[in-house]
Amino acid sequence: MEEALYTDYINILKEELLPALGCTEPIAVAYAAAIAANALGKLPEKVQISVSGNILKNVKSAVVPCTGGLKGVGSAAAAGIISGRADAKLEVLSFLTDEDRAFLPQYIARTPITVEQSSSGCIFDIGIRLTAGEESAYARIEGHHTNVVELEKNGEKLINRQTEDENADAGLTDRHCLTVKRIIEFADSLNTDDVREMIERQIEYNSAIAEEGLKGNYGANVGKVLLSSFGNGVHNRARATAAAGSDARMNGCSLPVVIVSGSGNQGMCTSLPVIVYAKELGVTHDKLIRAVALSDLITIHLKTGIGRLSAYCGAVSAGAGAGAGIAYLHGGGFEEIAHTLVNALAITSGLICDGAKSSCAGKIAAAVDAGILGYEMFRQGNQFYGGDGILEHGVENTIENVGDLARIGMKETDEEIIRLMIKDL
Predict the structure, then answer these.
(1) I need a surface site. Which of 89, 262, 369, 418 has the fewest CB within 10 A?
(2) Average pLDDT for the chain
(3) How far apart (Å, rounded) are the C-alpha atoms in residues 247 and 361?
(4) Residue 100 CA to chain centroid, in angstroms?
(5) Rounded distance, CA 84 to CA 36, Å?
(6) Which residues contact 233 (CB under 8 A, 6 or more apart)?
(7) Rounded distance between C-alpha atoms, residue 28 and residue 142, angstroms
(8) Residue 163 — very low, low, confident or very high, per pLDDT cuts 50/70/90?
(9) pTM greater than 0.85
């Protein structure tokens, strides 16, 4: 693989595989609030929040970690203000103390906190204005979870860097260099030391929260239900482990995860099934690292044409990515992986995203099931063909069609989902 492209792929993984505590949209709200609070330099007496519909959708029902079970945009912002640890970015709430948690409900009760839907048209948009007496501070995040584009104090601009495309992944390596064939070449030629630290962190963090999800009582306990109902075979363990991580994460577990495409659920869905299969197959640790890196990059590739937030459930891409990683663990090359992806996408494309919440675990289980089924179909000489529905001959053409479906075709679906979810707010 040519050196420049290899370096781009390493950089994409570095940019994507970030640690985060809790659902990433509430945490992004908390991060923006912490930035504004630091600029203000005192406890705000008034909080005004403007967020895009997709942020409202993904924050509404997810438990904000380390808050004692609080939900919602206002709670996430208040927690970020109390934490103030903007330097921790998506782990901003990990520094909340017991004293902070006790103070948080009091602060929310006495402080006017308003939340409105942004009219900017940007799919990922968080703006928070804090006021104390005559002083004020404003922070805005746009495009992706840590992309701070505005910061001001008392009208003075401290940061002001608008992007040409408000929905773009500003400042990140261009993901359009990704193709399935190149990703396989990258995995085959990978010097695992180049990614070892971040992939091993992904394995460690995501495995730990999945284990906690299987031990504890979180949400609808999808992972535990899968294991008790369908046995301990590797296929079911792969589904259950990924679902259990989501059970815990969506319902307030304070353990961090490593995210992919801005999502902890996707980070778990794309890695945990591969980890389970690697243990079952007894492959080398280096083979596991290659397979997880491949699965991550396939997921990122599938999400590139869709966008970070949409009406299309991101677990679909991550489950297909997991199927590709499992195919790679079995010795599969381009043919096996391409057919696995097409088969998986034929099964679950169109699964909607109606926000971050307990049922994400069930969708993850379905997506992982589709990824594994996609591979097993091909192993047994069965497949879906170009011309079947939105499938087109050639894996890249099918991926492009899915991106168009999600980004363009489901735009009105997204608006209706948001309307249904926030009509009573």
Answers:
(1) 89
(2) 94
(3) 6
(4) 27
(5) 9
(6) none
(7) 10
(8) low
(9) yes
Fold of 175-422: 2-methylcitrate dehydratase PrpD (1.10.4100)
Concatenate the DSSP letters of all residues of 5-23 into one string.
HHHHHHHHHHHH--EEES-
Kind and range of the H or E element at 319?
helix 314-329
The single-letter code of the amino acid at 17 is L
The CA distance from 303 to 318, in Å, is: 9
Nearest C-alpha neighbor of 29 from the set 103, 100, 118: 118
Could you tell me the maximum CA-CA distance found in the chain, to the nearest angstrom?
71
Cβ burial 348-366 (10 Å sphere, 16+ → b, else e): bbbbbbbbbbbbbbbbbbb
Domains of the chain by residue range: 23-160, 175-422
Check pLDDT > 80 for residue 166.
Answer: no
Name the percent of the chain in helix, strand, coil, to the closest 5. Answer: 60, 10, 30
Q: How far apart are CA 143 and CA 140, in angstroms?
A: 10
Domain 23-160 falls in which CATH fold? 60s Ribosomal Protein L30; Chain: A; (3.30.1330)
What CA–CA distance (Å, rounded) separates 105 from 127? Answer: 22
